[in-house]
Amino acid sequence: MATALAACAPPRPAPQAPRPAPSAPSAPSAPSVPPTLAPGPSGLTPVFHHGPRTGDRTVALTFDADMTADQGPRAAAGERFDHPGLIAALRALEVPATVFMTGRWAEEYPDQARSLGRDPLFEVANHSYSHYAFTGDCYGLPTVSADRMRADVERAYAVFRKVGVPDPKPYFRFPGGCYDRTALKALTPAGVTAVQWDVVGGDAFATDAEAVARQVLDGVRPGSVVVLHCTRSAAPTTERAVRRVVPELRRRGYRFVRVSELIAAANGRAEPPRAVVPTLEP
């Protein structure tokens, strides 16, 4: 998100340096281009798993804000796919994070999506519109046909723009983490970097927050990408696990960063996202 600076001229009697505008910004600086990875073999969508293992002890906490396209009736019946307590904890602990959000989640919780997108602590990335699988046999998820994969990703970006997320990143996480060559080829024109992980938090449907915390703490290495969830009904222990993990990793000398910072450190090259400007209506 671009930093906004006040554009007013200083008063004549006592010139002052311009101060940051707390609300309505004017004359914002040009947004920076997020780092991406070069295309993979045969020009396929590149896949990122973790940052450098040497140098600074950095780690990226990532949270999947999952909601599948057909779960609207469950949300209407009271099931909660958001997790405000988790986001509040990350803010209180001042932990930067990357949220991989489905378009359907952003439709259901537009105020929260917009708040995340406008908070410099976080970055919003793409987790598809539908949360349908991009391969067969992926944890029982419905599947997206190859000719609809790019459209599903672009539809999510369209929803982000509609609800007011100003700068979604050109990063994509496959639902369930399932992908193959066909999926990578289908998404090549979208210009995204696929982001996986090297540490599974194990918070999905978990009931023991301490077990989740131990799994994260046992797995983290310099440059790790940790996958967790931002859905209260499916991952109710995540907030408690995060409150345990964050101070312990800081005690071990780790610094929390967003995925974009790990990609930059891994020699990702900054290039304009080729097709992340939404072309389809939600």
Automatic annotation (TrEMBL):
Residues 57-257 form the NodB homology domain. Gene3D superfamilies: Glycoside hydrolase/deacetylase. PROSITE patterns: NODB (PS51677). Transmembrane segments: none annotated. Residues 1-56 are annotated as: Disordered. GO terms for biological process: carbohydrate metabolic process. One of its GO terms (molecular function) is hydrolase activity, acting on carbon-nitrogen (but not peptide) bonds. Residues 10-25 have a biased composition (Pro residues). This is Polysaccharide deacetylase. It comes from Streptomyces caelestis.
